[in-house]
Every structure is written in C-alpha cells, then in structure tokens.
Amino acid sequence: MLAFAIMDHLNAIWALTAAISLLFSSFVWGYSVRALHETIDWPPLSNWRRQEYAAVWNSLADSMNDAAMAATGETSESRLRSSAMETVRNLLELAAISARDEVLEIGCGVGRIGKEIAPLCRSWAGADISANMLGHASARLKNLENTRLIHLTSVGLNDLEENSFDVVYATNMLAHLDEIDRWWYVQEAFRVLRPGGRIFIDNMDMESEAGWSMFSKDAIRYRDVQRPPYMPRFSTAAEFSAYAKRAGFVDTRAHHRSPLVIVTATKPETAKA
Questions:
Q1: Which tens digit of pLDDT belongs to each residue from 103-143?
Q2: DSSP label at 235?
Q3: Alpha helices, DSSP H only, in 64-199?
Q4: CA dihedral angle for residue 65, residue 67, residue 69, residue 73, rounded to 10 degrees
Q5: Is residue 259 reached through a cis peptide bond, with omega within 30 degrees of 0 on the bond before it?
Q6: What is the total count of domains within the chain?
Q7: What's the predicted TM-score (pTM) here?
Q8: What is the residue range of 7's domain?
Q9: Which of 141, 133, 149, 148 lies closest to 116, judged by CA?
Q10: φ and ψ of 37, to 5 deg
C-alpha cells in the first residue's frame, strides 16, 4: 500500500494510512508469529520448565538473529525497528512518556523498544533475566548515552531501589510468565515507581477476536503434545486491572487495541513503596 501510494503520488492521507498499516502489521506479527508457531521451527526446549525463565530465554538467544526472531519474529534491523513503532506510539499516548521521565522496561530483550524510547526520555533502563538477551541489547544500544541494562537474577526487581522511576512498562513479555510472576512484577513496579509514576502492561487479549483465534489454534495444536515453556499465555482486562488495583495503583484503565489489551495505572501521589 505504501509503495503504491508513493509511486502513484497519492495524497498524504492515503500515504499516512498505508504507513500506519505497515507499522501495525509488523507489530502484530511479533506477537502472532510466536503464538501460532506456523512458519518457524521453534525448539521444543522440553528439558526446561516454564518457570526457568533465564534458561529458556538464554537458549532462544544464542545469536542476535535467534534472539530477535524469538522476541519479535523479525531478524533484520530495519524490520525490528519498524515492529517497535506501534508500541512506542502506545507508550507515548497511554503512559505519557516525556523528556523528563526516568523509564524502566521489564523484560527488555534485545532493546527493541528501548532503542526507540531512550531518545524521548531522560533515561531508560532495561531489565531482563536473560544474560544473552542483555548482551545483544548492549550491542544495539551502545551509541545511546542515557541507557543502562540490569540483569535480573530472579523474578522481581530486588536490585532496584524504591521510588526511582517515573514510568515502568512491560510489553510483549508478561505472556511468557505464570500468573503469580505477573502479579509479582506489578507489585514490584509499584515499589520502584515514584509517587505519581505510571505503569503500562500489555498482552494478547483473549477477549478480542484476533486473540481468541490465536488461543484456539494453540489449543488444537498442543492438545496432545507437550507445550513449550515459552508458549504465550493470553490475558484479559480484568486480570491485569486486578493486579494493578491490588498492588495499590489508582486510575486503572484498560485499553483494547486488538489483538492487545493494555492496562495503565498511576501510583498515588501520597503512596509509599
């Protein structure tokens, strides 16, 4: 669509629509390619349990190409960056990231989103439990002076100080965690956020038509076989909203942007971690 609009010199509205469609399709591909497992020979990793997150994701990230494919379904740098644009737009709109904010990403992977967000904020920190993923992220972010990477040695943000960030987000990550670990990270986000800080979390939305289609296809595919430890688990707005409210956040809002559900919330101005 974009190429057609440019070649035929169509008006700016058509060109913009085509560009947005391209970015959105790249973004959705990063989720659906792993959820459907149709075009990639994914290793079963049956020797690891789901909760052995570091071992699972280190195994999927031996090389930069492997890591990028596991994280997004893309390998080229240009397509990797294009696939980040929809998430960046959502973060800027829904989490209101600005030039004065200190931002933390939980489960940063190869720095796909961090590379785009870091120039737009005061500082960006990426935390991940996979040392291999962080190694690839370090190479991609080496020219950005306001970034740092944090290796998580266990589930949670134990090594991070309370009240130290303005925004905490997790995108394309909570799908790979058990529900108890999802809840733990939301609690920890509350602790490390400053009063007035914002949280942003997303996942495939089981209540959307696209999300349910992916879920139901997985149900058929894995009915009689062992499910791999990285297999995505979908969410609902009620689940994510419950985590945020129970952790102490206020102004909790669910945003349905098929195939995603996004929940944002705010730490009260008077709250203590």
A1: 999 999 999 999 999 999 999 999 999 999 999 999 999 99
A2: B
A3: 64-72, 77-83, 85-94, 114-117, 131-140, 179-192
A4: -140
A5: yes
A6: 1
A7: 0.84
A8: 2-266
A9: 141
A10: 55, 40
